[in-house]
Amino acid sequence: MEYRTITRIIGLLVALFSTTMLPPALIAVIYKDGGGTTFVQAFVLSLVLGLLLWYPNRDAKQELRSREGFLIVVLFWTVLGSIGAIPLVLADSPNLSFTDAMFEAFSALTTTGATVITGLDNLPKAILFYRHLLQWLGGMGIIVLAVAVLPMLGVGGMQLYRCETPGPVKDNKMTPRIAETAKALWYIYLTLTIACALAYWLAGMNLFDAVGHAFSTVSIGGFSSYDASMGHFDSRLINAICVVFLLIAGVNFSLHFTAFGRRGVNLKTYFRDTEVKVFLGFQLGVTAICFLVLLNSGIYDSPESTLDHAMFQAVSISTTAGFATQSFSEWPLFLPILLILASFIGGCAGSTGGGMKVVRIVLLLKQGGREVKRLIHPRAMYAIRLNNKAVGDRVIDAVWGFFAAYAGLFALFMVALIATGMDDITAFSATVACLNNLGPGLGAVASHFGDITDTAKWLLVLAMLFGRLEIFTLLVLFSPAFWKS
């Protein structure tokens, strides 16, 4: 294990990450409502720490193997989550404990969107912007951005990209060189963010809210600058814009690259993809169920208002964004549980959404169907196909392995949370919210996570990391074989 090389890279990336403290400091100067000094202090501390890690190891430039790649990715997220908490620890408003600051920072960076903060409407603009910015950086993965820079630093990036990129098939690159791939992903991500911010601004948001909420929308993070979330704006147009961009961000970004590539625009790319068709069909189905149940219950005063709330909440929760127009936990019958369960599926592989990913669910269902057919015709040969291509047994095995690990971790976290004193519904929904990188839950965590114990918060931080790194990237570090030379 090349520990000096790993330390050198982490030091460089921490120094790079320290620059994220500067935009909030500028926001504090512009709006003059406090927080500027806090972010300048956090910038200096982060930069010094990064340099202290880098300088003694500046000449260590060995090539990375996959094993080092896994370790760097895990260290990167844990270290940056910790560094990201520094401004929240130093800030006077909100006045957070160390545990709460760590929870908020990791929730932002992993795009979970669970919060321990109340009174968002009265917080300094610098803190609000910083929360949005962390989600935006975490959405596509800061590692992917760093991969575009690493070749210039003398370190290959393919190992990091394979460890970071979500989905069961990780070897497909959109462009021949990994740095070009990372840059292509970020160009798409940045373009969507600008388009989303512009749409919000034209729909009536002020510039600060438009940019901040665009960050949290395209990253499918769900942080808002208001306690009422999107319900603060009380605008069907803004809700519709949010839904559209959540659906776009929930699609595999490699499809966006293909559809808007060098050969011109080809929207047929989306409709030929099985995962996208299932994803959109699922969103439509959940929306329809919510609409019919809410319409029958008569909660809202018109069919239009019912459709607005049903569509927004269905898409927001099932894509794992977690925005709200009102608390879905107060909806009648089975709808709160339905939406929580919908988040297990989440977005497409290669998107900014959380959950288990649509393609895995599709492959699990196809494998289940194949086993049923084999019971009827034991000697027949059946191939599982996706987009008219046969899927290898290695991929199917990986998907089943992921599902088994996911189920095991889910049960472990839920039982551990109950052991801290949580009731069953709160423990179940909190585990779902953090392992799926969703955000809101039910019971005691329906509005915020500030009232649960510190032990529960640390457990949920770990669940966020498992969810963001898609289980195995973090789980592999617990294997004794990983540490053997």
UniProtKB/TrEMBL annotation:
<keyword id="KW-0406">Ion transport</keyword>
<feature type="binding site">
    <location>
        <position position="437"/>
    </location>
    <ligand>
        <name>K(+)</name>
    </ligand>
</feature>
<keyword id="KW-1133">Transmembrane helix</keyword>
<feature type="binding site">
    <location>
        <position position="112"/>
    </location>
    <ligand>
        <name>K(+)</name>
    </ligand>
</feature>
<feature type="transmembrane region" description="Helical">
    <location>
        <begin position="458"/>
        <end position="483"/>
    </location>
</feature>
<feature type="binding site">
    <location>
        <position position="111"/>
    </location>
    <ligand>
        <name>K(+)</name>
    </ligand>
</feature>
<dbReference type="GO" id="GO:0015379">
    <property type="term" value="F:potassium:chloride symporter activity"/>
</dbReference>
<feature type="binding site">
    <location>
        <position position="220"/>
    </location>
    <ligand>
        <name>K(+)</name>
    </ligand>
</feature>
<feature type="transmembrane region" description="Helical">
    <location>
        <begin position="69"/>
        <end position="90"/>
    </location>
</feature>
<keyword id="KW-0630">Potassium</keyword>
<protein>
    <recommendedName>
        <fullName>Trk system potassium uptake protein</fullName>
    </recommendedName>
</protein>
<keyword id="KW-0472">Membrane</keyword>
<feature type="transmembrane region" description="Helical">
    <location>
        <begin position="425"/>
        <end position="446"/>
    </location>
</feature>
<comment type="function">
    <text>Low-affinity potassium transport system. Interacts with Trk system potassium uptake protein TrkA.</text>
</comment>
<dbReference type="InterPro" id="IPR003445">
    <property type="entry name" value="Cat_transpt"/>
</dbReference>
<feature type="binding site">
    <location>
        <position position="221"/>
    </location>
    <ligand>
        <name>K(+)</name>
    </ligand>
</feature>
<dbReference type="Pfam" id="PF02386">
    <property type="entry name" value="TrkH"/>
</dbReference>
<feature type="transmembrane region" description="Helical">
    <location>
        <begin position="333"/>
        <end position="356"/>
    </location>
</feature>
<feature type="transmembrane region" description="Helical">
    <location>
        <begin position="184"/>
        <end position="203"/>
    </location>
</feature>
<dbReference type="InterPro" id="IPR004772">
    <property type="entry name" value="TrkH"/>
</dbReference>
<feature type="transmembrane region" description="Helical">
    <location>
        <begin position="237"/>
        <end position="257"/>
    </location>
</feature>
<feature type="binding site">
    <location>
        <position position="438"/>
    </location>
    <ligand>
        <name>K(+)</name>
    </ligand>
</feature>
<feature type="transmembrane region" description="Helical">
    <location>
        <begin position="133"/>
        <end position="153"/>
    </location>
</feature>
<dbReference type="GO" id="GO:0005886">
    <property type="term" value="C:plasma membrane"/>
</dbReference>
<feature type="binding site">
    <location>
        <position position="320"/>
    </location>
    <ligand>
        <name>K(+)</name>
    </ligand>
</feature>
<keyword id="KW-1003">Cell membrane</keyword>
<keyword id="KW-0813">Transport</keyword>
<feature type="transmembrane region" description="Helical">
    <location>
        <begin position="278"/>
        <end position="299"/>
    </location>
</feature>
<keyword id="KW-0812">Transmembrane</keyword>
<keyword id="KW-0633">Potassium transport</keyword>
<comment type="similarity">
    <text>Belongs to the TrkH potassium transport family.</text>
</comment>
<dbReference type="GO" id="GO:0046872">
    <property type="term" value="F:metal ion binding"/>
</dbReference>
<feature type="transmembrane region" description="Helical">
    <location>
        <begin position="395"/>
        <end position="419"/>
    </location>
</feature>
<feature type="transmembrane region" description="Helical">
    <location>
        <begin position="38"/>
        <end position="57"/>
    </location>
</feature>
<keyword id="KW-0997">Cell inner membrane</keyword>
<keyword id="KW-0479">Metal-binding</keyword>
<feature type="binding site">
    <location>
        <position position="321"/>
    </location>
    <ligand>
        <name>K(+)</name>
    </ligand>
</feature>
